[in-house]
Amino acid sequence: MNPPPRKLKKSNNPELPPPTIDVPAVEIPELTPEEQRDLLNLERRVERAFFEAGKALMELRDRRLYRSTHKTFEEYCKDRFGFERRHPYRLIEAAVVVDNLMQMCPIGTQIENDSSSVGTQTEIESSNEQMRPIGTQILPTSERQVRPLTKLEPQQQVEVWQRAVQVAKGKVPSARIVTDVVQRIMERTKVPNTYQIGEVCQILAKDNPELRGKGGCWGIVTHIGEFSCTVRTWDGECTVGVQYLKSYNYLPAECQQVQVICDRISRVYSAELEESVQRFLESLGKLRRSYLTALEEKVLSVLESVYETG
Length: 310
Known about the structure:
Blueprint: H1 33-47, H2 49-62, H3 73-81, H4 87-104, E1 120-124, E2 131-136, H5 143-146, H6 154-167, H7 175-189, E3 200-203, E4 218-224, E5 228-233, E6 236-241, E7 245-247, H8 252-268, H9 275-284, H10 294-307
Antiparallel strand pairs: 1-2, 3-4, 3-7, 4-5, 5-6
Helix pairs in contact: 2-4, 4-6, 6-7, 8-10
């Protein structure tokens, strides 16, 4: 029979150190060259997840591969992936920016070719669409880092990313750093605001994803900022940079007519209306004149009598 374990007696002398127990050291083996390659490859796959998703969503949208089950791309993305309306478009826009950076990003973002590299410049092989490293380069690792760049021209995207990498001391910059650099560049290109309250302008969406669906709509200026205006459209208000506005140069009386049309559409329009009715009201929100034709007036009056609740 084995004797019971001997208990260590606690010393009453505070000057003596407590007894120590030797614990055998566990040696952790270093990664083999193959494991090191696997580590980097898996890290890059994680970093590129948003890029791969954006490229796939772009193809799903452009080829309308959702058409057998859903009427719209937005409905498909929500049902299949749980994406809210803007998220798939943000991933697509981010993928476009990363593509641009991989093609145009200059030497300023190059880093030493070692195992601590954060990302790699890559190309898509047509045979299997796998990413293959062709050099060492710092690239975005999340959609949030790319989002501020989507508002810029391709060359500006490269300029901002290069500067953001420098600010981050050669590492992948955070979304906050990228946003700060974008803001400084945009401040250099902004023009003074000469619009007036009540003026009617056309919204120019251009390459601004935040104005998706607003391109060509008229808006009535309700607030004037230093470099932007808040405009009221047929379905609500939004803030737009002056570079995305173009005045119709209407006379005061014509501006007032558009205001009346805007009020009438707003009282009738809702997301619950039949699609054909929505499309008609939206078309009025893109008129390039300050008045309604006789037929437009008649149809709008009928809709007001049927749908207006106020």
